Structure formats: C-alpha cells, structure tokens
Amino acid sequence: MEFMTDKIEELKELIDQAHYVAFLTGAGVSTPSGIPDYRSKNGLYKKKDYNFPPEYMLSHDNLVKHPDIFHEFVVENMYFPDAEPNIIHKKMAEISNQKGVIVTQNVDKLHTKAGAKNVVEFHGNLYDHIHCLTCGKEFDYKYYLKDYHHHEDDGIIRPGTTVLYGENIDPNNLENAVKAIQRADLLIVAGTSFKVYPFAGLLAYRQPNAKMVAINKENLGMDSSVLAITDDAANVFAQL
C-alpha cells in the first residue's frame, strides 16, 4: 500500500506542475456510476445472448439492415439516463476546467454532466442530435427509447452523434483531440484498455517531453517512462 501511496503522491505532483492536462478516458471511468464497460470479463462484449457479435450489433450496417435488433440492443445496453457523475468525472472536471481538456470515448455525457467545460466526445454521444436518417428531423432521447420509427416518412431514427462501427470519426472531434494531445504536457489515461483505434493512436501526437500516467484496473503494458497505477480509477481520484 505504501508503494501505491507513493504513486498517488507522484500523480498529485505531476498535476500540480503541469501547465495543460489532457485526460483520455474510457468505459472504466463510468462503471462506478453503474454503466457497464465493454471489454472486461463482465463487460458488454462478453455477453453471448445476441443475434450477432456485439461489434456488429453496434454497427451502421446493423442499424440499416436490422433496425429493430439494433434499437433493442442499444436501448437495453447503452442508455443510462439516470446515471450520475462519480468522483472521477468530478475531479477531472475540476482539473480540466482550470488547465486542460477531457478526450473521452464514452457516449454517456457524464463528463459534461459533472460540469466539465472542455470535453471532446471522440465517439459522439447518445443524447444529442438524435435524428431521422431520411429527413434529419431531431427527436428527444425519451422518444427514441420507445420507438425508432419516424412515422411521418417511415424513416429510421438513429441514436445521436454516436459513432458506430463502420462509420468515420467526426473530423472536428478528431482535430480537436489531436490539438489537445499536442498541447498537453501531462496526459492521464484512465479507465480504458486502449485497444480501440483510432482513439489509441492519439498518443502518437503527444509531445516528446510530455509526462504520461496510466490508471487502469489491469496493467496496460506501457513502457517504463509511464507512471502506471494499477487500481480502480475511483480509488485513485478520491485521493486527489
């Protein structure tokens, strides 16, 4: 435990000394808020009771070809509108509002709900700009939870700005994420396996002298220059 305490103190010093902090976050940041992650042993992608593999279930192809299956999967597994920000979201909001940015893979909007002003939603989110694929009319997420049909033109309604498998990252989100990484002198990776590209490729844009911290329940196997804290992110951020 003393070894872990030393790492927490080192993290505190790095944050205090940094001019600009970039947080890169994944599903593990939202699990303390009751939102399941994707790739852990109990994650969404480990479930077997689906018509297709989870990656296909969340694909543009499935949305278009099997909108009923897509809608059922997304509503049952992705929407948690009553979830509240946890200590990780709150601490990141506090720090990034002072001197930094949050670049997140998460589509739950909890970083914004926690009060963070500088957030790049790399994969979009489930709640903004829910719209009909035929005419573009926008709907409230509460309508989408009940029905994916736009009955005026028989169009399919899709869940917000969320990037599905088979779709490209929004160019503005990509540009803003790259600029954030390039600017940061401290990068803190939290709650992500860092296996999904192009998100994982963002590290290629960091400054050569930028410090880096990885906080994850499982060791990510990064090189020795990275401060690796193998612990639940909630435990770590509760001590900052």
- Mean residue pLDDT: 92
Calculate the terminal CA-CA distance, rounded to whole Å.
16 Å
Helix content: 25-40%
Which percent band covers the strand fraction? 15-25%
CATH class membership of the domain at 1-35 and 85-124 and 168-240: Alpha Beta
What is the CATH topology of the domain at 1-35 and 85-124 and 168-240?
Rossmann fold
Rg over alpha carbons: 19 Å
Task: Count helical runs.
Answer: 9
Q: What general form does the structure show?
A: elongated
SSE series? HEHHHHEHEEEHEEHEEEH
Number of strands: 10
Q: Largest sheet, described in full? A: 6 strands, parallel
CATH architecture annotation name of the domain at 1-35 and 85-124 and 168-240: 3-Layer(aba) Sandwich
Q: What is the spatial order of strands in the main beta sheet?
A: 3-2-1-8-9-10
Keywords: NAD, Transferase
EC number: 2.3.1.286
Protein name: protein acetyllysine N-acetyltransferase
Organism: Companilactobacillus versmoldensis DSM 14857 = KCTC 3814
Describe the structure.
By secondary structure, the protein is α/β, with parallel strands linked by helices. It has a domain at 1-35 and 85-124 and 168-240: 3-Layer(aba) Sandwich (Rossmann fold), CATH 3.40.50. Helix content is 32%, strand content 16%. The protein is built from nine helices and ten strands. It has helices at residues 2-17, 54-57, 60-65, 67-77, 87-99, 110-113, 141-146, 171-183, 233-237; strands spanning 21-25, 100-104, 119-121, 130-132, 138-139, 149-150, 155-158, 186-190, 211-216, 227-230. The protein has a six-stranded parallel sheet, sandwiched between helices. Strands 5-4-7-6 form a four-stranded antiparallel sheet. Helix 6 (110-113) links the parallel strand 2 (100-104) and strand 3. The longest helix is centred in the N-terminal third of the chain and has 16 residues, at 2-17. The radius of gyration is 19 Å and the shape is elongated. The model has no long low-confidence stretch (mean pLDDT 92). Residues 1-240 form the Deacetylase sirtuin-type domain. Its EC number is 2.3.1.286. InterPro entries: DHS-like_NAD/FAD-binding_dom, NAD-dep_sirtuin_deacylases, Sirtuin, Sirtuin_cat_small_dom_sf, Ssirtuin_cat_dom. One of its GO terms (molecular function) is histone deacetylase activity, NAD-dependent.
